[in-house]
Write a structure and sequence with these properties.
The complex is a heterodimer of chains A (268) and B (230). With 268 residues, chain A is an alpha+beta fold. Chain A is built from eight helices and 14 strands. Chain A has a single domain, classed as 4-Layer Sandwich (Glutamine Phosphoribosylpyrophosphate, subunit 1, domain 1). In chain A, the strands form three sheets. In chain A, strands 12-2-3-13-14 form a five-stranded antiparallel sheet, covered by helices on one side. In chain A, strands 6-7-9-10-11 form a five-stranded antiparallel sheet. In chain A, strands 5-4-1-8 form a four-stranded antiparallel sheet. In chain A, strand 10 and strand 11 form a beta hairpin. Chain A is globular. Chain A starts with a helix and ends with a helix. In chain B, helix 4 packs antiparallel against helix 5. Chain B has one domain: Aminohydrolase, N-terminal nucleophile (Ntn) domain (Glutamine Phosphoribosylpyrophosphate, subunit 1, domain 1, 4-Layer Sandwich). Chain B is globular and about 65 Å long. Helices cover 39% and strands 24% of the residues of chain B. At the A-B interface, helix 2 and helix 3 of A face strand 3 and helix 2 of B.
Chain lengths: 268, 230
Amino acid sequence: MTDDRRLHPFHDYVESSFVELLRRQSPHLLPGAEPVPGASDAPHGTTVLALRYRDGVIMAGDRQATAGYQVASRRIEKIFKADDLSGVGIAGAAGPAMEMAKLFQTELEHYEKVEGDNLSLDGKANKLGQMIRMNLQAAMMGLAVVPIFAGFDEKTGLGRLFKYDITGGRYEERDYDAQGSGSKDARDSLKKLWKREMPRDDALRTALEALIDAADEDVGTGGPDLVRGIFPTVKTITRSGFGDVADDEIRRVCEAILAVRTTAGNGS
Amino acid sequence: MPLPYYVSPEQMMKDKAEYARKGIARGRSIVTLEYNEGILLVAENPSSLLHKVSEIYDRIAFAGVGKYNEFENLRIAGIRHADVKGYSYSRGDVTAKALANAYSQALGNIFTQDIKPFEVEVLVAEVGDDNGGKSEIYHILYDGTIEDEKNYAAMGGQAEEIRRFLKDHYQSAMTLDDALQLGVRALSVTQNKTLTERDLEVAVLDRTKERRKFRRLPPEALSQLLGTAK
């Protein structure tokens, strides 16, 4: 404890923040601290989306990372559990985005442990905005990170979702949103398919339809890979917590969607 | 500058130790027991908001007795140590041993260098993994002395008597229910009243849980667990 703190008891008002702790103690560990020009060829994550349904929010993302015209990875995960009641879907430069997701997880857990209480959903959303703003310099050099944040708000009993711009601007979306290179196509698809108070199965199908549409139109986005058995990631966030949707179920729904499209000749 | 009176180092250390021990003896006690699925921490604590037992990291818990502001300070320092380490390396690299050493260093330095020693004892427990990993319990005293305890530990006002009681009654591979009964009996050996769920703060490091093993037992669960043996 420094003498400074004894003299000003409440001077250190960011006691519970892990990001502030790193900034004080090990600033070199903060993402975006030393931006490098010309890193825009780094792998980029492509499409993530979130939509509200009856019990909360569904988040989904494809599995591909793309560097220029090359596939950098076919199996990356883009939807991360932030804490028990919220998740982050990352789009943009994959490296910094994953680092940011990890930092955000630690931030929420750190706060919870120090304070003995959870942050409100708005508090979490604001904190993520501040972290994106920290990355602004790197974003201007091609390493933008633009996540979607979604969670279950215990106060209102509803699922809520937020999107961000590269300056850390935070915008709450009511019903659904998508982010990343295939986001426009995914959003178009969601616009047609989304309905109020959808049950879980419909919401899951809607999310996968939108991802398949995005993969159809956007070269960066990976579709369901039947040969290798790689399928999009889907997570649900409800009152009872952050849950996985099993791979088998995702495979079944994907196959059903593709079967319908094959017989109907959609998009040919 | 006026010349201070000479006090022999021996005398000074003795005085400090006595001062710290007196402070700790005023407080209530905490017991820790290994049971078949993890580690149980039972504290006598009438407050349900000011905790004596808390989570540090995935498989590590902290308990403190003595002066609240002092062990609260140590608790937060521990969370910071663990979170920074886990963030810069990996979650698996955060160990109770490193943390206990850090506490020992900090308390040792404060004891020798500051005018007033900390009037606390802290305990760091780490639950072993499913593949037969051993659980670890470290007990750190006000002067930085560190002890590595087997199966059970007690600290606080009447720790000696409680430890003796546990030595006679502890069995390995108890169920949570039995361990809790034993823990509560151990805390009551030094007093006449029976402890109810309102006087207790109880938490476990539960090996069967996913990543974060720490879990508090709320009063309802406690009264149920304590009531079953009646």
